Amino acid sequence: MNKLLRILLVLFLAVAAATDLAAQFSGQIGAYDFLPQRVNANPALRPAGKVNVGIPFLSNVYLEHSNNWFRPSNFLSADAAGVVTIDNAAVLNGIDREVFTGFGTSLELLHVGIRKGDHYFNVRVSERFQGAFALPRDMMALGLYGNVGNNGFSDHTADLSNLRIDFMHFREYALGYSYAFSEKLTAGITLKYLYGMEALRTAESSLQLRTDPLTYEMSTTGALRINTSGAGLGEEEGDIRDDIGRYLFGLNNSGIGGDIGAVYRPLDKLTVEFSAFDFGFISWREDVANFGTSNAEFAYDGVDFSEFVFETGSAFDDGLQNEIDQIADRAEEAYNFEASHRAFRSAMFGMFRYAASYDLYETEKTSGRLWANYMHAVGHRNLPGRLAVGYSQRLWKFFQGGVHYSRQRGDGGFLGAGLTANAGPLQVFAMVENLNIARFSRYTFTDENDPDKENSIILPRNPNDIRIHFGLNLTFGRKSNDEAPGGEPML
Amino acid sequence: MKTTARAASFLFIVFGLLFSSCIKDEPEIRSVTFSADAEWGIPLAQVHLTAERVIDNFDKEGIVLSGEDGLVRIVYTDTLDPIRADDFLVLPDQSFDASFALGAAAFEQLQVEGSVSVSETRTYAYPAQDGDRLDSVRFESGIFEILVQTAMNVQISGTVSLLDPETDEPRYTYQFNDFEPPVLVDETASMENVLLTFDNTSDEENLLKVSYDFDLNYAGAGSDADISIDFSFSDLQIRAAGGFIVPRDLELEDEGLFVTMFNDLGTTQVRIEDPRINFYFDNGFGIGSQLLIDEIIGTNAAGELLTVPGSNITELPVLAPAPVPGTSVLTQIEINNDLMTPSVTDFLAFYPNFVSGNFALRINPGEDESSFISRDASLRLSYEAEIPVYGSIADFNMRDTADINLTDVIEGLEEAEPVQEAEIRLIIDNGLPLEAGLQIVFTDSLYQPVDSLFSGFTEVLPSAPLELSVPETHPHYGRSLGTTRSVITVTVARERLEAMDEVTKMIFRIVGNTTSNGDHPIRLFHQDAFSVRAAARVKLRFDE
Fold it and tell me: What is the pLDDT of residue A11?
């Protein structure tokens, strides 16, 4: 290994030790020369092919799931008799401030990219689904231990401020362009029109529940507001999906977004890059409903009998009912269960990506590179960044594969791999960020009373981070590294 | 070549890693167990009560008030029947006779000229029942009857007028005639709203001046005879009267008042500092009066009597008259410890739950010469026992038994399997200068103890801190300065409650007293209050 490689390794260790590492996006897609979809990681990156056409609906299928709590080995234990015990303390100990579950799917409907001299143009359309659910740790502790048990609350207060549920379905129309200013510098930009279809967004979540240690008086403060669009809860009756044409193309939920990026080669074998991608917003106006309150201040300290304690018979019953009604009215006023219908805006999950690569060797038919990148979300401090370090190997103009190691705060790091293969113009690729998902467990559930009755299900052993890319493209005019105009394709 | 082989090998490995999968293990699950120990605390109820409300609820007969100084007082009231004008001023039925003889000359004039006129004024005394010397009387109702008759063969027409003695202005005139001899006029008229004025001299009272004026017309041969004109008043109801009302005493009927707080004291020692017996008068008469107390009688729950003779009570002042008709004067007279022997405190220390009195009302004790009364006016009288909550209570002890059925509770507990233990917590903030203890014993039908609320008799209500640093005569001595908090926790494990399925009786004993068991007096103010908060803590165990 040469000196630069040792520097990169030291840099990785230093960064890994010093920063929060995590991201929810594929870190390796920009590392593959042949892949047209590398523009997603940095619009300044360009594939080796001169003309690139994605197979509609199959050019880039992305599946993602992540969670920070489902680690069966941590909280499940089984004995020889098949009795599985759930250890709740271990469930809570295994999470930080919240239980997070996220998913995402992206389906590329159209992808066309053309290079002309120093210019590269690309047009693409993707259908995207994103969702996440976060349950505050204190809420789980509340369910397991109660409000006055061994729940570990600070100042007897359950912090429910991370309670979130988010979902978004939208279509992204992108127009990308990059220009090679010189052999060293390439810059690119992508403009996007975002068409929103459904959304459920937690706009504000800061609820707290305090229990007085002496009187057990329970009081809530904070806010919880949720905005929805397309859930059938708007002012107008009916479902936006009843008119399928309007649903697919005619809704008044619009937004704009964009990516920018640059690639620079300060040395012959060294390349550095920066990109900001997935920035934008959508204004939701169709079938909008808003729920919640900005001031959920409410205290319950028992039924107050003062006014009617000396009454008897129906007078007492009436007094008690009135008091209960008043408590219910105050609660309703505090939590404001009624809906409003105001348009709202949701921002995209923008990311910054920093990357570098070093050409280890190059021959006529093969080349090998070391690469590293770090990605993090912008404006979401609770989401850690992710660092990835990998090696890719290219064989002729037909195969390129790689392995990498990535890590973020809260996980032990994963080994991932990817491969693109070209058979003539047909290109197939597949990438997985966490090879652990390829290891499965078959769970067989047997009825205790009827041993012959059983059901099975196969699940990944460690489903905490699942990110899979695969797809089919047609690429034409792939050039070798030396022939690639406007600078080396970057990793 | 080597490099190419290595690269191909590397890619093959990547390919293999990427697309290979294997089932690493195949756990068999027969059951999933889960356990959790949760503890939930929830506030149940609260009550905040002022002293006024508590006393008001437990003593329905008494009225709970707070004075200007804020001290709580319990008042037991009795109202006597009002005194009306008819009760002491009566004009009896009275008749007046007059006879007129013409004389020879007048008779001759009658025969020759055919008519003769007679006009004469006379004065009559109209005595009142009790010797009242009236200046004027307006009647509400009454009957004026006149009888005119003569044996002469004449026709007659004329008037009888009741005159103002000073101005001779007719106050009332009755006109009569009879044109068909023999003359006989027997008629009546209403005295409603008729005002008569009287003259009074040193020798005679209520002198009524009457004027007779009548004409006789000759109706034919006949002899001379007297003409008699008699009139009378009957069934007179006075609307208003003025003059000198002779002083007299009216007996008042008193039904007595119930001091229910002394109904069932048992062994409790109660001492009331500075109580009062108050009398309230609303005098609508233009005449002074004075309440005379013959005796005050207290009867306790045992039926014993304590009588305070009137001679042991300081004479009460005269009540002021109403200044003008249509108005009234309110007067309050109080008998405090200084005005009665035994003192009112000592009288109440007898714990009389019924107090009555023999009272009389002296009308016009000052012998005012000019008074007025009217039918619409009255003199209203009520009296009360005012008991300030200023004193001491010692040795309050109450024991009672109640039936209880815990079957539903235990059955509900059996269904609520996760419940392991329940804890009831009472947080009591006592701002009253009282303290109390409690114990409840749960027994079976044979009164055999099964369980008890506390392990021993427990003080559940410690007294509030009191102001004792000032002299005992200071108006703030013995008042509460704040609140004292006590927290009582009763833990009921599942097994403990399940063992109470035989419980059918609940015997509770309450002991209470003012601070230091009555060694010093306390004062209870209207803002003094106590609050109780009840909360529950439940331990749950989930085993699935």
Answer: 41
Other Cβ atoms within 10 Å of A37 Cβ, number: 29
Question: Does one domain contain both B258 and B326?
Answer: yes
ipTM of the complex: 0.75
Percent helix / strand / coil, chain A, rounded to 5 = 15, 50, 35
Question: Which residues, 6 or more positions from A323, have their beta carbon under 8 angstroms from its beta carbon?
Answer: A303, A304, A305, A307, A308
- Put simply, the answer to whether A310 touches B57 (Cβ < 8 Å) is yes
Taking a contact as any Cβ pair under 8 Å apart, which residues of chain A between 326 and 345 contact chain B?
none
Structural domains counted in chain B: 3
Cis peptide before B182 (omega within 30 of 0): yes
CA distance linking residue A430 with residue A32, whole number of Å: 11
The three-point CA angle B437-B442-B448 to 5° equals 120
DSSP state, residue B93 = P
Cβ-based neighbours of A119, under 8 Å, separated by 6 or more: A177, A178, A179
Question: Is A214–B38 a contact, with Cβ atoms under 8 angstroms apart?
Answer: no
Q: Are residues B203 and B239 in the same domain?
A: yes
**A205-262: pLDDT as tens digits:** 999 999 999 999 999 999 888 999 998 888 887 888 888 999 999 999 999 999 999 9
Residue A322 lies in a domain: no
Domain CATH for A424: 2.40.160
| Helices (H), ranges, B142-199 | none
Residue B194's alpha-carbon distances to A367, B92, B142, B197, B285, in angstroms, are 140, 16, 9, 10, 21
Cβ pair A419:B10 closer than 8 A: no
Q: Nearest-CA distance from A298 to chain B in Å? A: 14
Cβ contact (<8 Å) for B47 and A309? yes
pLDDT at B94 over 90: yes
Per the model's pLDDT, the better-predicted residue between B175 and A446 turns out to be B175
B:85-114 residues touching chain A, CB 8 A cutoff: none
The token pair at B507 is 């015997």
Any domain includes B312: yes
**Residue where one domain finishes, among candidates B215, B244, B273:** B244
Most B CBs within 10 Å, among A32, A84, A360, to test the B interface: A84
Give me chain B's average pLDDT, please. 87
Q: In terms of Cα–Cα distance, which of B287, B439, B285 is closest to B377?
A: B285
Q: Do B41 and A440 touch (CB under 8 A)?
A: no
Q: Is a pLDDT exceeding 50 seen at residue A488?
A: no
B269: in domain: yes
d(CA B41, CA A112): 63
Facing A395 at nearest CB: one of B7, B20, B48: B7
Size of interface A-B (CB pairs under 8 A): 179
* Ramachandran bin of B235, using left for φ above 0, alpha for ψ from -120 to 50, beta for the remaining angles: left
Q: How confident is the model at residue A3 (pLDDT cuts 50, 70, 90)?
A: very low
Q: Closest Cα of chain B to A241: distance in Å?
A: 38
